[in-house]
């Protein structure tokens, strides 16, 4: 994108090479303007990281782990300040932002432990030779991270990339640039100069970084942006890791308690105002419990709307997109039994919304809405719900609520997603990883497997010269 181009986001006016103006999602008040990097700054950052990478790669893994622990300690100390910036820029409640920062601290600590024990494999060959593999850092890693859980998601990529010996250039989302800069200021002192850099900017800065001479492009964000980054990586040869959009289904079987199922659906659809990659985006409920389920889900949404627990969406552009999906569904015959209308007043609030009478092809069922919307389609059988859940071009995650072991096993086998959750919309063991499919991305995110993404394997074969080999063989052959 040319440096003179203007990118307009409702609530944010950005000029590439100039600055990013942020408004408070609650009030619409202008908070600040953050300068963003021009092409020269991007090129300089790549050069600095490239020069710093060999020294960091040669640093002992235990020392890299110790640096990561120091970064985690600094992040923990700065938690309240960063949570306040998160709340100001994205509208996320401060306590939820603090929980995200606590998760980020734990992630850095986890990688500080995992990095030094990340190892290769021995290979079976001749008994007088050695064959093994070595995991080596790829070099310079560009990390493009989102705004919806900005510290936790960023630190997962940052921790794995740094502890395996890569130099890192982090570009946080343009929707939370001050937070991204502050995170960089907190973490960078734990590492040698040039090893961890932060650049602020919008789509133009991300595109410039994607075309640069780097070794890894890691992106968490929309599928459209992810596709462009994958294209750029194919041209430059950079290794690409993507966790992109999702349209995660929830299948509700006939043999579960409808009130409990509605509670699970509400948690999945309304948490963080639906602004979670693995949020529940479409619901297929068995006809035998549909009426009770929908009534309970309506009550769950109404409670959230009445007690003010639904935070604003990140900006007006996001709210317009969410309401566009809802309006299209209403035009095509769906009914909003709760929410579904633009609220009066300042900010980018949108109510928890329950849509019934939804059908295939509606945007709320086919696309990622990314807002507090629970669209419900009633199905005749579990097989019908599973068939619909398996449809679409995304493949991030899916949830099944059922007491029928055969149905659960059927769903696990059939669902074309990276993560299948049974009887809980969120959760999972520490250290878990996921491998998205389809337009939801590629490569492992999080967990020990992410260390593999940031390294490349070298195979080593060692044997003695012929004279030494003959001598050694004679010794082995002695009775």
From TrEMBL:
A Pfam short name: Aldedh
Keywords carried by this UniProt record: Oxidoreductase
Superkingdom classification of source: Bacteria
UniProt entry tagged with the keyword Oxidoreductase: yes
Record has NAD as a keyword: no
Example of a GO MF term: oxidoreductase activity, acting on the aldehyde or oxo group of donors, NAD or NADP as acceptor
InterPro entries per record: Ald_DH/histidinol_DH, Ald_DH_C, Ald_DH_CS_CYS, Ald_DH_N, Aldehyde_DH_dom
Residues in Aldehyde dehydrogenase domain copies: 20-460
PANTHER family reported for this sequence: ALDEHYDE DEHYDROGENASE-RELATED
Entry protein name: Acyl-CoA reductase-like NAD-dependent aldehyde dehydrogenase
Organism: Pseudarthrobacter niigatensis
Taxon lineage: Bacteria, Bacillati, Actinomycetota, Actinomycetes, Micrococcales
């Amino acid at each position: 994108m040319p440096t003179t181009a203007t990118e307009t986001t409702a609530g944010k006016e950005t000029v590439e090479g100039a600055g990013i103006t942020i408004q408070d999602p609650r009030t619409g008040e202008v908070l600040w303007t953050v300068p963003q990097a021009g092409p020269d700054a991007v090129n300089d950052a790549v050069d600095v990281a490239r020069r710093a990478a060999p020294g960091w790669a040669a640093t002992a893994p235990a020392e890299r782990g110790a640096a990561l622990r120091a970064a985690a300690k600094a992040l923990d100390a700065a938690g309240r300040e960063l949570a306040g910036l998160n709340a100001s820029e994205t509208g996320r409640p401060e306590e939820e932002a603090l929980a995200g920062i606590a998760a980020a601290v734990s992630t850095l600590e986890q990688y500080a432990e995992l990095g030094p024990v990340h190892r290769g494999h021995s290979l079976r060959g001749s008994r007088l030779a050695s064959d093994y593999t070595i995991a080596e850092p790829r070099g310079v890693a560009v990390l493009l991270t989102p705004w919806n859980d900005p510290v936790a998601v960023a630190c997962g990529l940052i921790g794995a990339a740094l502890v395996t010996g890569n130099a890192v250039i982090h570009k946080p989302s343009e929707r939370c640039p001050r937070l991204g800069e502050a995170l960089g200021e907190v973490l960078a002192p734990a590492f040698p100069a040039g090893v961890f850099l932060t650049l602020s900017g919008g789509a133009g800065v991300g595109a410039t970084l994607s075309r640069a001479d780097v070794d890894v492009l890691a992106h968490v964000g929309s599928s459209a942006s992810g596709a462009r980054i994958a294209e750029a990586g194919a041209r430059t040869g950079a290794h690409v890791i993507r966790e992109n959009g999702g349209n995660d289904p929830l299948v509700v079987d006939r043999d579960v308690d409808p009130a409990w199922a509605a509670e699970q659906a509400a948690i999945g659809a309304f948490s963080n105002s639906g602004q979670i990659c693995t949020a529940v985006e479409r619901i297929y409920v068995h006809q035998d419990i549909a009426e009770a389920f929908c009534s309970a889900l309506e009550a769950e949404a109404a409670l959230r709307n009445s007690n003010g627990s639904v935070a604003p969406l990140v900006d007006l552009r996001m709210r317009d997109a969410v309401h566009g999906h809802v309006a299209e569904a209403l035009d095509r015959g769906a009914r909003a039994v709760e929410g579904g209308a633009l609220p009066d007043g300042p900010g980018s609030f949108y109510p928890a919304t329950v849509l019934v009478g939804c059908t295939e092809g509606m945007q709320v069922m086919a696309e990622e809405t990314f807002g507090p919307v629970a669209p419900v389609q009633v199905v005749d059988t579990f097989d019908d719900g599973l068939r619909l859940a398996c449809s679409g071009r995304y493949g991030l995650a899916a949830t099944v609520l059922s007491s029928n072991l055969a149905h659960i096993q059927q769903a696990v086998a059939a669902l074309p997603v990276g993560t299948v959750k049974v009887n809980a919309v969120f959760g999972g063991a520490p250290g878990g990883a996921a491998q998205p499919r389809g337009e939801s991305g590629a490569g492992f995110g999080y967990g020990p497997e992410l260390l593999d993404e940031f390294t490349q394997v070298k195979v080593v074969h060692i044997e003695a010269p012929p004279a030494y080999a003959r001598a050694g063989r004679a010794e082995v052959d002695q009775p």
